[in-house]
Amino acid sequence: MQDTYYAVAMERPFFVYILASRYRGTLYVGVTNDISRRMGEHKAGLVAGFTKRYAVHKLVYFEEFSSILEARARERVLKRWRREWKFALIEELNPTGAI
Fold first, then answer.
1. Tens-digit pLDDT profile for residues 46-91
2. Residue 98 forms part of a structural domain
3. How far apart are CA 56 and CA 98, in angstroms?
4. Domain of residue 21, residue span
5. DSSP H or E run through 56
6. How far is CA 14 from its chain centroid?
7. In this structure, is residue 75 part of a structural domain?
8. Is the separation of the CB atoms in 26 and 56 below 8 Å?
9. pTM for the full model?
10. Could you give the angle at the alpha carbon of 68 between the alpha carbons of 3 and 41, nearest 5°?
């Protein structure tokens, strides 16, 4: 039974996501294995720290990965990007500006 649980748990996707406070406002890059739960936590203010302090809770971009190692590597890359590069990435897939 434990082997089955482990196999199912390993199949769960991981997400790298970007949150924004408003259009071209403060950005936050994070990683999670349950994006709907994590967004609920951010919006409810249950996550203490940066996102709560700066009211950063609008999901504007995400990518899905099959491995936590890949997701964390991508998160580190995005965190090092310049703001304008992040805005370009967001606006490429979200051209209406619905941030």
1. 988 999 999 999 999 999 999 999 999 999 999 999 999 999 999 9
2. no
3. 15
4. 14-93
5. none
6. 10
7. yes
8. yes
9. 0.85
10. 100
